[in-house]
Amino acid sequence: MDPFSATLPTSYVNAFVEGLALSHADLNLLVRRASIDARLLALPGARVTQEQFATLFQLLVAHLEDEMPGLYGRPLRRGTLKILLILMLDAPDLATAMRRWQQFDRVLHDDFSFEVRREGALASIAIRLYPTQARSARLVQELHLKLVHGIASWIVGKRLGIERVDFAFPRPPDAAEYVYIFPGPVYFDQPATAMYIDAAYLQQPVRSRTRSELRDFLQGAPQNWFFVPFDKTLLSHRLRSHLESRLHESSNIQSAALALNCSERTLARHLSAEGTTFQQVKDVLRRDIAVQKLLKSRESIAAIARATGFATVSAFHRAFRSWTGSTPLAYRRQAGRAHRVAAPQGVTLTQ
Question: How far from the centroid of its chain's Cα atoms is residue 93's Cα?
Fold first, then answer.
């Protein structure tokens, strides 16, 4: 069984689109084409799927002619990332490829730069400068680190493990979301925004890629670099996988700890270090499954309640309202209206 992917809060979508050079009518049209109902964006607890966010991202790229929509001081015109990747693919190893990226950025930007530095056994990738007029400093920093991690992983043909991520901004209210965005411990209020990886990765040879592989990577953005697969090195991800396979059972922290070969105290301590708890992992899993089933299937509300481990439909209703601010039926109806406006086919990042 394929695991249910994590969903994103609508607050993230709102932050992403806020301040873009778009008319209200154009933004509403693009949101609908991404199968997102604008009324859901007004609900603080509502969620969107990875596919919806990726589609909206691609639509904005095409509409604004900017491969990182509105995040840098100047637009990244279509083809920019393709040129960058061609330069990096000709490098002998990741360290050389990253230096080429830094040089490329210096040519492209006056108000953005990042630095790669060895620090003992680790290598840091730190953002040293970003546009002071950036509409969301948090988004610029998060998405650039995500882009670096995604491209670097693709360049060497393996997903780079992240030892830790530091952010220079304060801990946000939705900090619990980070465990499904950055596969490693995240710290806030740090001196600089930086991502730390094993320094040995810098010696990894750059993998040879075909034109079709390059095209597929670009067309798959941002889903192939923003979202990460569940990571077996994170206990919260292993717990999520365990709970997903046993949603029909009455799982508790004691049985989960036994299944994961650790004590209840050890499980709770590791989850806390990853910024979450047993109940949060369980609730987030059930919420993500419910949202995706409501959006993508015709299963009855009762069937979804059973599938997510609720004994009664009323209990499911209460939980879903607490998670999203909406009842399951109202959520499905609103999402259904948006799905009637199909997203255009063939939206790509490069030609």
Answer: 27
Contact status, residue 126 vs residue 194, Cβ threshold 8 Å:
yes
Encode pLDDT of 20-30 as tens digits. 888 989 998 99
Residues 6 or more apart whose CB falls under 8 angstroms from that of 239 comprise 256, 260, 267, 271, 278, 281
Closest by CA position to 75, among listed 112, 126, 123: 112
Distances (CA, A) of 333 to 53, 140, 306, 336: 19, 34, 20, 5
- For the record, the structure tokens of 148 come out as 């670096």
pLDDT (tens digit per residue) in 253-283? 999 999 999 999 999 998 988 888 999 899 9
Out of 29-38, 52-61, 132-141, 340-349, the most confident range is 52-61
Q: Which residue has the higher pLDDT, 249 or 282?
A: 282
* Distance between CA atoms of residues 190 and 214, nearest Å: 35
pTM of the model: 0.79
pLDDT, tens digit, for every residue of 136-172? Answer: 678 888 888 999 999 999 999 998 989 999 999 898 8
CA–CA distances in Å: residue 322 to residues 10, 210, 238, 287, 292: 15, 48, 25, 10, 17
Of 345, 351, 266, 349, nearest to 33 (Cα)? 345
Q: What is the mean pLDDT of residues 65-76?
A: 87
Structural domains of the chain in order of their starting residue, each with its CATH number? 78-220 (no CATH), 235-339 (1.10.10.60)
